[in-house]
Amino acid sequence: MRIPPYYRSPSWQRFFSGMAVGAALSWCIFLYIHGVWMEEKSALIAKQKQDITDMTNDIKIWQDDYKALNEKNLEQLTIQEIKIKITNGKKYELDLLGVYEAEEKIKDDLSLFLAKDLEYVYKSRELIKKMIENKVIPLNGKRYRVRITSMVVYTTVNIQLEVYLDE
Question: Does the model's pTM come out above 0.70?
Answer without folding.
Answer: no
